[in-house]
Write a structure and sequence with these properties.
alpha/beta; two-stranded parallel sheet
């Protein structure tokens, strides 16, 4: 994650079910993620991750690029070009995932 934020100046917005954990920033720090958590997505009654992410995105006023790193796959169709599905059973965030994330975030043609 640090490689992504260092290379792109990205901010971290958490949509994980862990987002309500008051110790989440500490957990990130313990696993070596130095970038502070910028925000969390809202909880929605539907609990559809893609919808929760879209609600957060729709409220943003600054121009942005984004990626979604998740081991689940319940994203909206419009989010799929920005979605990188990780594999928590094997490796979590792979080097290939990191390179893809940096490419999407730094793509000036988008």
């Amino acid at each position: 994650m640090n490689r992504i934020t260092d290379a792109t100046k990205a901010k971290i917005v958490v949509s994980s079910t862990w987002r309500s954990d008051s110790n989440l920033q500490e957990v990130f720090t313990l696993v070596g993620i130095k970038e502070p958590i910028y925000d969390v997505t809202p909880y929605m009654r539907s609990r559809h991750r893609g919808s929760e992410i879209q609600e957060w995105l729709d409220k943003q006023t600054e121009p942005y690029r984004y990626i979604i790193l998740d081991d689940d796959s319940d994203m909206l169709d419009c989010q799929l070009p920005y979605f990188i599905q990780t594999d928590w059973l094997k490796w979590g965030l792979s080097d290939e995932d990191v390179e893809q994330a940096i490419h999407i975030l730094n793509d000036t043609a988008a």
